[in-house]
Write a structure and sequence with these properties.
2 copies of one chain form a homodimer. Chain A is α/β, with parallel strands linked by helices. The first copy, chain A, contains 7 helices and 11 strands. Chain A is elongated and about 60 Å long.
Amino acid sequence: MIRLFVTADLAQDHALALDLGQSRYLTAVMRREVGDEVLVFNGRDGEWRGALEVVAKRGVVLRLTALERPQAFGPDLDLVVALVKRTRIETIIEKAAELGARRVRLVITERTNAERVRLDRLTAIATEAAEQTGRMDVPEIVEPLKLAKLIETWDAPRRLLFCDEAGEAKPVLEALAGTPAAPWAILIGPEGGFSPTERESLRNLIYATPASLGPRILRADTAAISALTLWQAAQGDWRGLEVS
Amino acid sequence: MIRLFVTADLAQDHALALDLGQSRYLTAVMRREVGDEVLVFNGRDGEWRGALEVVAKRGVVLRLTALERPQAFGPDLDLVVALVKRTRIETIIEKAAELGARRVRLVITERTNAERVRLDRLTAIATEAAEQTGRMDVPEIVEPLKLAKLIETWDAPRRLLFCDEAGEAKPVLEALAGTPAAPWAILIGPEGGFSPTERESLRNLIYATPASLGPRILRADTAAISALTLWQAAQGDWRGLEVS
């Protein structure tokens, strides 16, 4: 079933006019017709089932017929990631959405070769991934900030899993054992790694837990996906699924 | 330091003629000159340091000066992955190399939209990723086989982590707890999932351990990376790193 993220309020029997892009996608691309059903969510009101009521040139109108799932969020997890080249950042955004990060914060480090990023494009990627992965919110993409500034403005109760590619830290699962629950953030450095000064200051943060991602050198996108996976498995919503 | 995979034997003081592609990469792209050093490995003789001795139009000759690391392999882990579209298969191959899979076996399932694959291109991707990630072998890419045939010809002592997106299995870390060590394989289905018949026959294999990858729907490349990560963390070489 097609899932669409919308911004309008959702409630029983509401008529919902889709924007032109979504309308064209439903009709021209996916060949949906009056009476066909789709799912919609807005990050606030849960996931709703709706039926196509009007299919016109100016757009599609849905009639909401049933609340499928009440609004829920994954654990409060940020991914803080150094700007890397465009294709890898786009992969990271897509995977962060699939792996349940609530926010992605872009960060500029000493060794970042900062390319310009288009937040609107990254948000579109996050939205599409959220639609496909089945979550009921879209991860927020936060514009790039220098690492020093990020640390200065840190909200202190949030813990930081600092993925330290220099490799003298404990493996992630060992490092996370016995640590408090969310809120957390995962920090992934640029492909050239953090500078010695940056590593020193990160390791001195009382809310930081350094951790290693194995014996091989990982690209930034691999490191982000692996760290998100291990955090979800150890601390997040990959634990305690109902087993039939 | 640049690392190159070569096929020739490696030993102290050997002269090693690089092929034209690698020679051009070293000189035209990376601007290396006589006396500069690189690392080479061939999957048998360990990782060697070599210095550029001849830089000529017909190619570069290295003189091997020291064994940097004796030959070692990661754990005996296969990734068995259904053919998915080209860009995602290429991502999977790159990540399998970074995450230490020893082989990638391509498999055709009922819901596979099999595109043709070029094994030479996939092997080139695996080779480049192996060079960059620091491993001393290149994962073997095994040509596509039907799932039924794969099961028929299974080498029985190898266990199979069956990533069952239908979601009634235990989470991977729980599923792997207490299971025997390598050899293992990880099985990732196509984006449309396994058919009910396939799921049934996979769940009946005595060497198979079904496992779930969390509450969201993952694309095939994400599922492969997450499963490789969790296996390495629970059973592989991401455990027991030396902690300084």
